[in-house]
Amino acid sequence: MARFIVFDVETPNRKNNRISAIGITVVEEGKISKEFYSLVNPETNFDYFNVKLTGISKASVKDAPTFPELWQQIEPLFSDGMLVAHNASFDMNVLKNCLLDYEIDWKPYARYLCTVKMGRSLFPDRSHKLNMVCEHFGIPLNHHRADSDSRACAEILLRYLEAGAEVKDFIRTCSFKK
Asked: Which InterPro entries does the record associate with it (predicted)?
């Protein structure tokens, strides 16, 4: 079975080019094997909407590492498995924009899975909002908290794989070229 790097990001503002928190949940051999969470100092302004949604403010991240500092620690994880997120186009684009904004070279592209797309294929008549899927499966969720969201997404991925989802049918590619 593949190694999945399930992640979720929170953003400080509507630009979606910086990260204020990241949660990572690693799935290996059909089980959650590792979890990681960090606040991130985005070195930019916070919009009221994002603060209200995530509870993360400039004061919350004043002592947190910046993305370039954190990337040194998490890049090996991101490079060693299939990336997965719930509504992955958002998280993948934020990651891409953050890497570009900080002029961090990573790799030309990354393959990823989206649990929303998987769910729509497996269960077309259900809501695919994270909180609704978690409610359906009885998965605990503290919504808009990157650690909880990534853990919940990993649990959803495992449920979808148990339901017969074929990973190869859902692989997408995100370009990280400038």
From this structure: Ribonucl_H, RNaseH-like_sf, RNaseH_sf
**Which tens digits make up the pLDDT trace of 169-178?**
999 999 998 7
pLDDT digits (tens, 9 = 90+) for 8-53: 999 999 999 999 999 999 999 999 999 999 999 999 999 999 999 9
Residues in the chain: 178
Residues pairing with 38 in the sheet = 22
pLDDT of residue 107: 94
Contact between 167 and 39 (Cβ < 8 Å)? no
Asked if 177 and 105 touch (Cβ cutoff 8 Å), the reply is no
Residue at token pair 């994270």 = 130
Complete edge-to-edge strand list for the sheet that includes strand 82-85: 31-39, 21-28, 4-10, 82-85, 109-114, 172-175
- Do 14 and 20 contact (CB within 8 A), yes or no? no
